[in-house]
Amino acid sequence: MAVNRGVGDPQVTAAPTFSIYRALRLTETLAVHVVVLAGGLFFAFPFYWLIITSLKTDTQLFIWPPALIPSPVELKHYGDALEAVPLVRYFFNSLYLAVLNVLGVLFSCSIVAYAFARYRAPGSRVLFAVLLATMMLPAHVTMIPLFIVFRSLDWVDTLRPLWVPAFLGNAFFIFLLRQFFMSIPQELFDAARIDGCSEFGQYWRIMLPLSKPALTTVAIFQFQFTWNDFLGPLIYINSQDKKPLALGLQDFYKTQATVEWQQLMAASVMMVLPVVLLFFFLQRYFIEGIALTGLKG
Amino acid sequence: MVKRTPILRSLRARETFWFYVFASPWILGFLLFYFGPMIASFWLSLTNYSVLLPTRFMGFSNYSAMFEDDLLGISIWNTAYYAALAVPTSMAAGLGLAMVLNRGDLRGRSFLRSAFYVPAIMPLVAVSILWIWLLQPRFGLINTLLYFLSIKGPNWLGDPAWSKPGLVVMNLTGVGINMVIFLAALQGVPTQLYEAAELDGANRLRKFWHVTIPMISPAIFFVVVIGFINSFQVFTQAYIMTEGGPADSTLFYVLYLYRHAFNYFKMGYASAMAWLLFVVIVALTYIQFRLSLRWVHYGGQ
Amino acid sequence: MMTSTFSRRRFLQYSAGGLGAALAAACVPAAPAAPADTGAAADESMEAVNLEFWSEGAADWAEERIEKYQEMMPSVSIEFVTFKWGEMTPKLMTASAGGAAPHITRQDRFRMAGWAGRGGATLLDDFVAQYNINADDYFPATWAEGVWDGKVYSIPFNTDGRFIIWNKDIFAEHGLEADDPPPTQDWEAMIGLAEQLTQTNDDGAVEVMGFIPSQMLGYGNGGDYVYAWANGAEFMKDERTAWMDNPLLVETMQWQYDCVNAVGGIDVASEFSSGWPTVAGFNPFGTGRLAMMVSGDWNLSTFARYYEDLNFGLAPWRIRGTMDQYTGFAGGFCLAIPAGAQNLEESFELLNFLAGLDSQIAHTLRYQNIPCLIEAALDEDVINSSPYPDLRRLANESMNYANFRPITPVGQEIQDLWTYPGTGRDWVFYGQKTPEEACVDMQEIVQKALDDFWASV
Description:
The structure holds three protein chains of three kinds. By secondary structure, chain A is mainly α. In chain A, 64% of the residues lie in helices and 0% in strands. In chain A, helix 5 (87-118) crosses helix 8. Chain B has a single domain, classed as Orthogonal Bundle (MetI-like fold), CATH 1.10.3720.10. Chain B is flat and about 75 Å long.
């Protein structure tokens, strides 16, 4: 098993003996760096914007076009935000939900996707169509009936409606993982089966290890979706001590005309930062993915 | 124990058994959380359900009323227009970005990937002000960049002809999502395929076209199918940023549906709208699956 | 492996109760808002009553009041839930449908007819009599909006007025008498003034916008109603007949359109206005880029906090062709009890406390709105708490003659068409329809909604 180096890797494609060719490659590499760096700065700008807005004084706040470097810098909004709103509590609620949701979809979606990718059974195609169909009806019209389901379970104003469904599959991730699983050669599993590996073992010992990039994708997405989910908590949570961050940010909207903008931005920075860090640490799995050496092609 | 069960002797029966065992979490989830609400919403689409008043069965009159709703027609056009622009652009941008950010010779790759992912995780309520500014016609960042390219940028959100492209540009900054999917897919392309292609004298474009694209075609297919499903339900940007304006140019289907459901107490009509949308997306997805037989290659088969 | 067995056991547990629930969901809407679990609740009510209070916006003031109430009433526990403005509706609607509505809401007053007309609010007449609540104690517009079909469904809480607000420095630059209110009674003169005060640079970009008489293009709030009322227009003929094609409305719209053309046309106006956020605090008026706007009295505290150097005037809008008759706009919130709430006695007792004089004053001192109780609004402490006491007094007193939006279950439809971006007025501004055509089309939409409503009652 070798590490896949990626498409444009010079060690794969460059011929080291031609110096002109090398110079060209170097120029190209440099150009790519410049363009990507510029693009990266542009894309990171919203985060920078959050930070500078959280540091502005009242009189700087509404200067238009906005100042890119706040002066003077006012740090107090972070303290004020933490004092005005129980952000730490909200943070741990969000974390609790995010962790459970990630575990839930990693398990449930991978095993269901495995079923769809690996087996042909009577009704499996119809069920796959039904699976996709669940994504096609706007949530606004199923919201009330779904609320009635959760109310009959007595789950309103608990965190359960916000994480239990993750353990029972999610169409988006099942479809995503199915696409990845179907790219993995069937021969691997047939061979394992002949060697006496159980069906669950094939899923656990072959499919999952081969799908680390895809599972990482699922983990990142689900963490972020849960972290930013607003509508679910809005509908199901009443108690302040059960609010997650995305809902709790509303506490900074005092009236229609009064919004504590700097505190809101400060809280947003605290909310976004963990997701950025999570992504930063998880994205390395997109380098260490496994090339299917010698199996196909 | 399993092997002794007679039913499981034939491969086919065995596959059926394991399919249903492994798919059971979702089947259960579907029965618990989707099936009832979906049926209920269809039933409500046949009524004048207003949430509060006694509900009366109306047959298909909500559906026939849609034909006389001029704004509904406009919202369908807006939505189709948006989807036609948003899906290909975000697919191409995501793929291009993933290709570049997968290069082995790229320094600071982790930071750059994270940077490109940042807009995808920003809560829109917090950065909507930023977007007003970025798209500001005179001193906004985007038109300033266009100015340096000697292009006079449009009045993005104030001109009915440009408001949808403006939202497509906004949507493009969420391309980190597609980038991640393609990054994951690229890790599954065996290095030997590129080496073999090189031995055959293939240049980079040919390698991209004949190796990369077919190998990641399942992911491309996913991005396109999901892209259409989501674009046809586009809501948040218009809800927060443009409120349907100017001149109904960003009145998207689900935004209009939302108004009926929660502002006008017409949940029955909103449900009928939802089911019309449902039929359209199902048809579109079906066509995509039929077409996919020609261009999507599953290495597993 | 652990996960596997754990989950499967879980699935089995849930499948029993849940499957039935899912099936039940298909049938429940036939009997909406049916109160559930009355048995269990009744047992507990002997000792402790748990009341839920849902409020759109403004947490801080109520927390204090609620604490105070709980000291007085140890047997009552209160769950206080706040929302950003506009976000409570989907939740309230969902909870009402699911039989989980709260005991008290603080919600948009002009939407009350929509809730009350559809049976979504509890009739308060008996409580009003029992607690000696007197309609005359409230500004007339605010009380009127809580009444549907002759019955009281809500108690007014806070309100806000709409005024012409002008930048005195810009007026002085043009040699105008900066302290005199603009000639709002003379619509031709206002068009001339809008044109005169608009300054463009060499590129054709607007440096200072004079005036755009429309909420969405002109950065104010609620002006569209004020102009209609100043022209004597009404939106409804009677409770079953809409009047969006009222010639006086057509005339109003024509004037708004003419004014947009006078400042350079829709391209110039929309380029100016699409560049500013429309969220709280952001306003080209504050930074001296807009000479006049029609907006609410809340700007007083916004200006004081964020735009210290702003030199502005504020006055009520005159009725067209008169010098000493004014019109205004009373927006704001009320307290109500949703239909199906339990513990009505306890609920109203708390409501009455929260809507009472002390609470209204506490809220005003914190957020500088206008209390709906006249006594609170004219309280010297309240007026002097404003950074601009004179203007505050003027604003609060103006609520005596303030107008209010049509009391109808289709009020939201009228509002969306008449004031919001996109639909309705944009047809005219963007040259898609003439004011006559636009008003005829609006009439058709509103009348259909109205017919649907009356057919369903």
